[in-house]
Amino acid sequence: MGAVSVKPQSTPTQTEDRVARLERLDRTIRAASAQRTLYSGVLASKLGLHQTDLECLFIITLGEKVTPGRLAQETGLTSGAITGVVDRIERAGYIRRVRDTNDRRRLFLEPVADRIEEIRAINRRAFHSWMRELARYSERDLDVLLEFAEKNYLAAVNATIKLRREVREDGAAAGRGISGT
């Protein structure tokens, strides 16, 4: 099965205007994001995890001293849902709960290094060609791409926070019997 084309139906010309190029960039980023989401689902299945568990595990591995509360805050999941997620990830052997030595009430979610390396090895195989492509760029180009990726990530985080707030407000309004129309 071939990849979905993210290019416009007509062949782009030298005169493709800025708006069209920005729209094409947006389509391509969204297509890549969708494909990574699909990849994540398959990887989670291969690891015996739910996709949400894998995404939460990813957040845990990116942070330092991640607590269940912080994980709930970053994902928007309830504390009850986070408990289930953490239980499943721990049972699968990818994290361990570690008590804070300064405050025994506080709990950190610590990745199990050798298990995380197993996931990274799978990803390295899967994305080897992507890394070869990135290696073709100059240091200056990589700086631009990195800046773009960081800004893209922050925009996605902010959009998620805003949408989550709207959903809560819509739910509260519905609970009060207020119509959105």
Gyration radius, to the nearest Å?
Answer: 20 Å
Number of strands: 2
What is the CA-CA span between the terminal residues?
A: 43 Å
In spatial order, strands of the major sheet run 1-2
**Name of the CATH superfamily of the domain at 18-136:** Winged helix-like DNA-binding domain superfamily/Winged helix DNA-binding domain
State which percent range the strand residues make up: 5-15%
Q: How confident is the prediction overall: mean pLDDT?
A: 88
Residue runs with pLDDT of under 50 for 5 or more positions: none
Structural class, from secondary structure content? mainly alpha
Protein architecture, described:
Pfam families: MarR_2. This is MarR family winged helix-turn-helix transcriptional regulator. Residues 15-154 form the HTH marR-type domain. The chain is mostly helical. The chain has a domain at 18-136: Arc Repressor Mutant, subunit A. Helix content is 67%, strand content 6%. It is built from seven helices and two strands, in the order H-H-H-H-E-E-H-H-H. The longest helix has 37 residues, at 139-175. The chain is globular and about 60 Å long.
